[in-house]
Fold this sequence. Notes:
Blueprint: E1 5-9, H1 15-27, E2 32-36, H2 43-56, E3 60-65, H3 71-76, E4 83-87, H4 96-103, E5 112-113, H5 117-132, H6 137-163
Amino acid sequence: xxxxxxxxxxxxxxxxxxxxxxxxxxxxxxxxxxxxxxxxxxxxxxxxxxxxxxxxxxxxxxxxxxxxxxxxxxxxxxxxxxxxxxxxxxxxxxxxxxxxxxxxxxxxxxxxxxxxxxxxxxxxxxxxxxxxxxxxxxxxxxxxxxxxxxxxxxxxxxxxxxxx
Length: 164
């Protein structure tokens, strides 16, 4: 049985971002795997992983890549399951090149793209959970609880300021 969410990174340098996404999924008891496949250096291995994962029950793919950032598009071209793209920050253009490569997809082959870097990786975990919440009240309830805690934290800060 394949993981519910397959996090795929283009190289080991993206591992910290994959862990950020995994932390969110883990906190919501959503099983996931982290795999390294390059859209350019190991395309056959990537395609094999997608075939096996699709057959095994994977529901969502998260693709984290920098530089050319074709990974999300390569995944979206081979599956009809949701693909969430996380542009990794880059050295020369600060991740803008990755963002544009991830978000600019042809009609009919969408990639849901989140912010560049760590925030995007965290939000990819939340977006995957929100998609899964469509068929899981347990995940929906957990997400609502997180939102409530976040709201209360803001209210507490607001309260401190209004007392002064």
